[in-house]
């Protein structure tokens, strides 16, 4: 079309020397931008702040758990610390982490278009997130909240004296930010693909974001209305979950987990997408079982909606309901395993090199597998009875959330950092740091499996003396982990100013995002590309011979 | 096919944002995006409908008693207003696409008026509940309810549960109406002053129509559930 051609000429003559970061430096051009890349960077900054806040609370309560006596903090304070850790990490870091940053940045580029389908909605999503964050800060300022991130009624509705209202509103609004992101992703993948980019030529990262978008769109409204009812009951004492007025607290648990279990897949699916990209690139090999990995993401998204009852095996749910939920939960392990096997098979016949993103990705595969397999222990109804609410559960979901999602986030951040900023970070320190994070993580959470197996319940600030050694190990590991993340943030910021120029494709990777400048121009592509080849068109071992 | 009253929009006028390749892509994206937005709305209201079903099943007599306290004539009138407004909304979209500017304007005005009538009636309904002390948490003193005659097997204070569901469900629906009328006024000003929407540019009107019909359909489910059965 004539219009498009005109615009392209403008790009080539005027905008080419500038990229999205330096095109304009004003406050307005950053905070009210509709450029998906700038919004991704805004999100990245914001969630890093929340990540650090959540991390500080984790370190504080790990400090308390150094000694068996509850000597450093009162029980009430301890309750607030673990609740704030959970609320901040889940609603303000893990849920938006990969979709809102890497997804926002890369999805339009990977499908070969100039922006998400609804750029203004994307900006609205960021500001709703900031608005929710203000409730989050208000929650902190008004003394925190002590119900656990699960807000179980009637503790949250009647007995807690802390700012549950603020916390519920914070999660309520953060939810809308994630709904808008999800809708935007789905429409973009359906309608904005470049010519020739068929569904099965999409990178697996896009498939993962698409599946995540479905869960965000269909799951999040349910937690919104549930937390709205909690807030309503909190303010006016109306009794919708209060047995004294005929309400049913178990209904709260059903409605809460109807979102919050699929939310686990919101948190992990984007990570799967990152790992697929990184493994293929650093194995220099076509990804093994492309269709299986793509469809297993959708299978997880669908099955994930039918497993919420496994959180309620001992909450008065009937045994027969439990059996069904247990069975479907175990079915989710199948698509997850398909992914892990396919990634492993991708190594075979490849030319594997261990750059820092790859180290994180390999770490992910080991840790996620442990996290996934221990999930099967908890999905078995009999095993769940003794293990429920012990540190075994805590270790399990941290292996999935931190060992899985945060490792994947680190892998993705290291992989695409040169594309996002145009700068390289110090590779040797990054590799060293990947090892530090891996070791620190295992030192923190592996002892918790043993503690849980021995019967240590979660959410207590004191414990019998014989568990001290394992708890000290865990706290020491948390300190190492904290050091690792701080170091990563430090060298990323350093690289912004002093890092080597990265060039367009520092890893020799395939994919549309590596065909454009680093950092990209505001409109991503000078000409909308026409895609003619399959994704991951690496040549495996042959490439070695070519290089030699 | 456009009439004279609609300003001609030539191919050089960028009335779709620059990140789209052509107008078809924009239209398809808008339609899909709106359907997905409505899907999340269904899940949002779905949580409340679930709570309603669970508690109705647990306390059928209380829900019967609660429904008896409502003014079903007002509810029926409101249903009629909304159905008419949906018809005029559909006509607005038709006339916009066919460039009949006066009819478009009149039908859209009618839509807004019937939507506002709904809210006026809603106000009188809520006020009646307030006077009868049927607002849980704020003004709860159900002196007009004849508990003895109702022959309840569930505890009478469970009536609160019915009314909190009534107020949350109809209240959220009314909030959607208020938002709809707010956006509608903005569209109406654009229509009236700048004749902004015509055969070449009708997505804003059509998308507003999607939303309006959705809010209407929610009421079509709410009315029988809350007032009639």
Secondary structure: elements and pairs:
The complex is a heterodimer of chains A (548) and B (229).
Chain A: H1 2-15, H2 27-31, H3 36-64, H4 75-110, H5 119-141, H6 155-159, H7 164-191, H8 204-236, H9 249-283, H10 290-303, H11 319-347, H12 356-379, H13 381-387, H14 391-421, H15 427-454, H16 468-498, H17 542-547
Helix pairs in contact in A: 3-4, 3-5, 3-16, 4-7, 4-8, 4-9, 4-14, 5-7, 7-8, 8-9, 8-10, 9-10, 9-11, 9-12, 9-14, 10-11, 11-12, 12-14, 12-15, 14-15, 15-16
Chain B: H1 23-58, H2 60-69, H3 72-97, H4 101-131, E1 134-135, E2 139-140, H5 147-150, H6 159-194, H7 203-228
Antiparallel strand pairs in B: 1-2
Helix pairs in contact in B: 1-2, 1-6, 1-7, 3-4, 3-7, 4-6, 6-7
Question: Tags for this entry?
Answer:
heterodimer, A: 548 residues, mainly alpha, Cytochrome C Oxidase, Chain A, 69% helix, 0% strand, disordered N terminus, B: 229 residues, Four Helix Bundle (Hemerythrin (Met), subunit A), two-stranded antiparallel ribbon, 74% helix, 2% strand, elongated
Notes on the structure:
Chain A is mostly helical and 548 residues long. Chain A has a single domain, classed as Cytochrome c oxidase-like, subunit I domain (Cytochrome C Oxidase, Chain A, Up-down Bundle). Chain A is built from 17 helices and no strands. Chain A has helices spanning 2-15, 27-31, 36-64, 75-110, 119-141, 155-159, 164-191, 204-236, 249-283, 290-303, 319-347, 356-379, 381-387, 391-421, 427-454, 468-498, 542-547. With 229 residues, chain B is mostly helical. Chain B has a single domain (23-228), classed as Four Helix Bundle (Hemerythrin (Met), subunit A) (Up-down Bundle). Chain B has 7 helices and 2 strands. A two-stranded antiparallel sheet of chain B has the order 1-2. In chain B, strand 1 (134-135) and strand 2 form a beta hairpin. In chain B, helix 1 (23-58) packs antiparallel against helix 6 (159-194) and helix 4 (101-131) packs antiparallel against helix 6. The chains are: A mainly alpha (548), B mainly alpha (229).
């Amino acid at each position: 079309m004539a219009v498009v051609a005109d615009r392209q000429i403008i790009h080539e003559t005027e905008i080419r020397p500038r990229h999205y970061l330096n095109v304009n430096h004003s406050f307005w051009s950053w905070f009210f931008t509709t450029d998906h890349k700038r919004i991704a960077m805004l999100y990245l900054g914001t969630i890093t702040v929340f990540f650090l806040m959540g991390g500080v609370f984790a370190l504080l309560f790990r400090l308390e758990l150094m000694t068996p006596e509850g000597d450093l903090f009162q029980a009430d304070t301890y309750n607030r610390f673990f609740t704030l850790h959970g609320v901040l990490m889940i609603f303000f870091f893990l849920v938006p982490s990969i979709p809102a940053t890497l997804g926002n940045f890369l999805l339009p580029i990977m499908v070969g278009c100039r922006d998400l389908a609804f750029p203004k909605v994307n900006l609205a999503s960021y500001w709703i997130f900031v608005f929710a964050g203000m409730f989050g800060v208000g929650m902190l300022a008004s003394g925190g909240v002590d119900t656990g991130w699960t807000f179980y009624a009637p503790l949250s509705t009647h007995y807690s004296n802390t700012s549950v209202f603020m916390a519920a509103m914070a999660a309520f609004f953060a939810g809308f930010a994630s709904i808008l992101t999800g809708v935007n992703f789905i429409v973009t993948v359906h309608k904005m693909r470049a010519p020739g980019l068929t569904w099965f030529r999409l990178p697996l990262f896009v498939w993962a974001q698409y599946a995540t978008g479905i869960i965000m769109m269909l799951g999040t409204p349910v937690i919104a209305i549930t937390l709205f009812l909690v807030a309503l009951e909190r303010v006016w004492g109306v009794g919708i979950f209060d047995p004294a007025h005929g309400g049913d607290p178990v209904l709260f648990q059903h409605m809460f987990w109807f979102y919050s279990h699929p939310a686990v897949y919101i948190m992990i699916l984007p990570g799967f997408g990152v790992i697929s990209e990184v493994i293929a690139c650093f194995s220099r090999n076509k990804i093994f079982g492309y269709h299986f990995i793509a469809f297993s993401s959708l299978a997880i998204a669908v099955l994930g909606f039918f497993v919420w009852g496994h959180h309620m095996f001992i909450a008065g749910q009937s045994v027969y309901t439990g059996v069904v939920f247990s069975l479907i939960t175990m079915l989710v392990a199948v698509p997850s395993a398909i992914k892990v096997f396919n990634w492993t098979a991708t190594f075979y016949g490849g030319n594997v090199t261990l750059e820092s993103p790859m180290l994180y990705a390999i770490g992910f595969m080991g840790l996620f597998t442990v996290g996934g397999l221990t999930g099967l222990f908890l999905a078995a109804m009999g095993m769940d009875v003794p293990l429920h609410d012990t540190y075994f559960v805590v270790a399990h979901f941290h292996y999935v959330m931190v060992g899985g999602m945060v490792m994947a986030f680190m892998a993705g951040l290291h992989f695409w950092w040169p594309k996002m900023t145009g700068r390289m970070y110090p590779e040797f320190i990054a590799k060293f740091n990947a090892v530090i994070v891996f070791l620190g993580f295992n030192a923190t959470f592996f002892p918790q499996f043993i503690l849980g197996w021995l019967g240590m319940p979660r959410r207590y600030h004191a414990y019998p003396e014989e568990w001290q050694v394992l708890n000290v190990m865990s706290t020491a590991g948390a300190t190492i982990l904290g050091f690792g993340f701080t170091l990563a943030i430090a060298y990323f910021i350093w690289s912004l100013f002093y890092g080597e120029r990265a060039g367009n494709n520092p890893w020799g990777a395939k994919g549309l995002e590596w065909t454009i400048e680093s950092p990209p121009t505001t409109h991503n592509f000078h000409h909308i590309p026409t895609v003619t080849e399959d994704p991951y068109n690496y040549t495996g071992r042959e490439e070695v011979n070519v290089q030699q | 096919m456009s009439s004279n009253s609609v300003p001609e929009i030539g191919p050089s006028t960028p009335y779709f944002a620059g990140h789209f390749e052509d107008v078809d892509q924009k239209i398809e994206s808008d339609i899909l995006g709106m359907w997905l937005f409505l899907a999340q709305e269904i899940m949002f209201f779905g949580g409340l409908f679930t709570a309603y079903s669970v508690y109705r099943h647990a306390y059928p007599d209380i829900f019967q008693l609660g429904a008896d306290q409502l003014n079903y004539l007002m509810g029926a009138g409101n249903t009629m207003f909304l159905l008419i407004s949906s018809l005029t909304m559909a006509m607005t979209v038709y006339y916009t696409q066919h460039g009949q500017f006066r009819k478009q304007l009149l039908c859209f005005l009618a839509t807004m008026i019937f939507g506002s009538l709904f809210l006026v009636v809603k106000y009188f309904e809520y006020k009646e509940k307030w006077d009868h002390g049927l607002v849980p948490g704020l003004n709860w003193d159900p002196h007009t309810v004849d508990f003895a005659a109702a022959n309840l097997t569930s505890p009478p204070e469970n009536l609160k549960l019915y009314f909190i569901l009534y107020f949350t469900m109809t209240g959220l629906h009314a909030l959607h109406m208020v938002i709809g009328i707010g956006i509608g006024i903005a569209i109406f000003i654009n229509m009236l002053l700048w004749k902004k929407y015509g055969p070449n540019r009708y997505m804003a009107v059509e998308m507003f129509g999607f939303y309006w019909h959705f809010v209407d359909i929610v009421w079509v489910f709410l009315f029988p559930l809350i007032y009639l059965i």
